[in-house]
Amino acid sequence: MLAVLATGLLSCGLFCQQARAFSGDVMFAGRVKASGSSGAGTTHLTFTNPWTVASLPAPDGAYIGTAGSSATMTNFSFTGTGTGAVLVGGTVANEWSFSHGGNTYSFDLVSLISATITHGTIDMSGTGIARINGGDASAATWALQGTGRNFTFNFASSSTSAVPDGGSAVALLGIALAGIETVRRRAKAA
22 phi and psi, to 5 degrees? Predict the structure, then answer.
């Protein structure tokens, strides 16, 4: 039984295609309009596209060399304010996306950590999944900040930081294999 398990794991390791986690930071600049203050019912964010991948600070990691690319932002809505803010409708697929050098980069906004909009400022953050070419995926954090007048933020920046998995999946696999070996030894001794 152990030989069958080992053969299966080895085969999967050799022949299974898995996404590669990546890391990097990218910042965008553009314009966004909010329907009003956060906390006063549902707030709608409307992005004026295209946004631009900023050159300062320079994109790094998997995003190196993408400065100046045009990005598309997806409008979304939320309720609440501060840490009580919640996305309306759940995940925002392709909150931002852009193409450069034959690659397509995107980010799905999964949840808000915090969101505050007043007459003169917008300050939001959230978590989600950053992708390259729809496959390579990494957990990421996202932020949107800016200043403006009458809920129109002329200079707003959105930044995303992708961080690869710290190895928890491999650790869980090791624990499972150790457990199977323990059961095998106990069964053999009985």
Answer: -140, 170
Tokens representing 43 are 């707030």
14: left (phi over 0), alpha (psi -120 to 50) or beta: alpha
Report the alpha-carbon distance of residue 151 to residue 56 in Å, rounded. 25
C-alpha torsion sign, points 21, 26, 31, 33: positive
Q: Which of 46, 34, 42 is nearest to 117 (CA)?
A: 34
**At 20, phi and psi to the nearest 5?**
-95, 130
183 CB-contact burial (10 Å; exposed 0-12 / middle 13-18 / buried 19+): exposed
Which residues are CB-neighbours of 106 under 8 A, at least 6 positions away? Answer: 94, 96, 97, 98, 130, 131, 134
Q: Is the pTM of the predicted complex or chain greater than 0.85?
A: no
**In DSSP terms, which residues pair with 97 in a beta bridge?**
72, 106
Condensed to tens digits (0 to 9), the pLDDT of residues 46-90 reads 999 999 999 988 999 999 999 999 999 999 999 999 999 999 999
One-letter amino acid identity for 26? V
